[in-house]
Design a protein that fits this description.
The chain is mainly α. It contains 14 helices and no strands.
């Protein structure tokens, strides 16, 4: 590893630690009710009506958790192949998609709440939406293609095009009638994946595995650090912008708990379910194992729903920001096709091999977005200091 990569990894790890600590301090130092008994809700510049708690939870799910769970089973199998036991593998992938990552989203989301009209912030969100969604779509469709044993570019493009088209129709026509309906569908299919276990020959007993020194060496090595800085940090403006958009009416405790605990729990559960089907994921063959057909189809449908939900929410952020930056000359419904075409264009560059290393985009974009992340950390730090000063004055 060269000196540049070492510096980047170190910056990513330090940034993540700062965000985790800030989230914990904000959670424990902020009161949910004012002195007069009213809810102490987050100040948000958005003009939309507050989302209900159940709908907000669904919105958090589709904002960033869903797309991660789309390709995470492949990571799970990879760690098992590297020699980690089931507990270590499930914990590894869950943490890589759980609280440490969402601390980044939560902190920058608080910055966006105060700076919804920031042109730099909107441009960052739009750029990370197109690049991040394209790379995630490329990775996710590779995973789905492996499920069915058809990993040729035409099949992957067909799946990607169908997913993008459904998301665009949903964003324009409210086809899926809201994020809560989308999240409900995903949860139903996840539940079906669990109850279909008897159709397979696998025994689920990951509790027999222990977390060893191998886990910690792997977790704090390049794989984790690279994920922090090259993948998740590049996604931060997109997910954070969405969190700011939907979090009006939430208290700080609800906001931190919902964004830190919910994705972590969901990631653990989904990885545990995925572990049951690791052999199916690797060796799916309908002709030889008819019992693997149902769980594989459920995984494929769930994966497309995960991806569609994320595309839908990202489309809302992208098109509203584009409309705002154009001073209303480009209307939201008219810009939805642009979003879909941009995503599919970059997806085609990746899948065709014209761009041989798509993940390099994460490295470059995360470096561009790092100043935004630092501004978010500083502002949240000031918020904590002001609360301390107010208590000292009293």
């Amino acid at each position: 590893m060269n000196i540049f990569d070492k510096i980047i990894y170190l910056v990513g790890a330090i940034t993540t630690v700062f965000c985790v600590v800030l989230c914990l301090v904000l959670f424990f130092t902020t009161k949910s009710k004012k002195a007069n008994g009213e809810r102490n809700e987050l100040d948000n510049k958005t003009q939309e009506k507050p989302w209900t708690l159940s709908t907000w939870i669904a919105g958090v799910f589709v904002a960033g958790t869903g797309v991660a769970l789309m390709y995470a089973p492949a990571d799970l199998v990879g760690y098992i192949k590297e020699g980690l036991n089931p507990v270590e593998s499930i914990t590894m992938v869950a943490l890589l998609n759980g609280a440490p990552v969402w601390a980044l989203y939560s902190i920058m989301g608080l910055w966006y709440m105060k700076h919804m009209d920031s042109k730099i912030g909107k441009l960052a969100a739009m750029l990370s939406t197109v690049l991040g969604m394209s790379i995630s779509l490329w990775t996710g469709m590779n995973t789905v293609a492996r499920f069915v044993g058809l990993s040729f570019p035409g099949f992957q493009f067909m799946l990607a095009a169908i997913t993008v088209m459904i998301a665009m129709l949903s964003a324009k026509r409210n086809l899926l009638k809201g994020m809560s309906r989308m999240a409900f569908l995903v949860f139903v299919f996840a539940f079906l994946a669990v109850i279909s276990t008897p159709l397979t020959d696998f025994n689920f007993s990951p509790i027999t595995g222990a977390i060893t020194g191998n886990f910690w060496r792997e977790y704090f090595s390049g794989a984790t650090a690279a994920s922090w800085i090259f993948w998740f940090l590049s996604w931060t403006p997109t997910v954070s912008r969405w969190l700011a958009h939907i979090s009006k009416g939430r208290t700080m405790k609800e906001y931190i708990a919902g964004t830190m605990i919910l994705p972590t729990v969901l990631a653990f559960v989904w990885m545990a379910v995925s572990w049951m089907y690791q052999d199916v994921i690797i060796n799916f063959n309908l002709a030889q194992n008819i019992s693997s057909f149902i769980p594989c189809i459920i995984f494929i449908i769930s994966g497309i729903l995960f991806m569609t939900g994320t595309l839908d929410s990202d489309c809302k952020v992208f098109t509203e920001d584009l409309e705002s930056l154009s001073s209303g000359k480009l209307k939201r419904n008219a810009t939805i096709p642009y979003y879909g075409l941009f995503v599919l264009f970059f997806f085609c560059l990746f899948i065709s091999g014209i761009i041989s290393n798509p993940f390099a985009f994460n490295e470059y974009s995360s470096l561009i977005f790092m100043p935004l992340m630092i501004m978010s950390i500083v502002e949240c730090g000031k918020l904590i200091v002001r609360k301390k000063d107010n208590r000292d004055e009293r």
